[in-house]
Amino acid sequence: MFDPHCAGRRRVLASIGGLVAAAFAPPALALPGNSRTQLPGERLETLAQLPPAPPALRRALEPLRGKSVLVNFWATWCEPCRTEMPALVSLAESEPGLALVTIAVADRADDVRRFFDDHLVDPPLVNDPEQVISRAWDVRYLPTTVLLDAAHQPLLRARGELDWHHDSVRARIRSAATATRPTRT
Fold this sequence. Notes:
Blueprint: H1 4-23, H2 27-30, E1 45-46, H3 55-61, E2 68-74, H4 79-94, E3 98-105, H5 109-119, E4 125-128, H6 132-136, E5 144-148, E6 154-159, H7 167-178
Parallel strand pairs: 2-3, 3-4
Antiparallel strand pairs: 1-6, 2-5, 5-6
Protein name: Redoxin domain-containing protein
Organism: Aromatoleum toluolicum
Pfam family, one: AhpC-TSA
């Protein structure tokens, strides 16, 4: 005998099973026509513009005029942020003409200083406890990193953790940071 309630439950369970399978599918299988895995450098999206930098960020960027800048939004309570910070510092130190500014989002100054001391890194820091800067630049994910050119105009953005040691990432950063852009009128 046909039980409509049982059949309905089976359809629901089958649908849930399909969604779970799709969620755990490798990226190359999840996108039709994608025959290869995306390189980390391809995760850097082109960024045409951003609103003007809030005053606290402008003050941090001013001494870096003439250098390309990685602006990294992070927090000590964000594990992926903590993981990628040493690689970001290493990248900025290894590339002439590139600087790093970190924006501590909704974090306590003592926790940030302790993290830097524990990891023996000391990049320029802007505290953003009220999320003024992150809201102005529509940062919704941590970590988020924005590459600015030497005139501090936006070039690229990475949302989420990225392997900053990967050759494809370094090549993309180097290429974008040294490219000549037309002057805005």
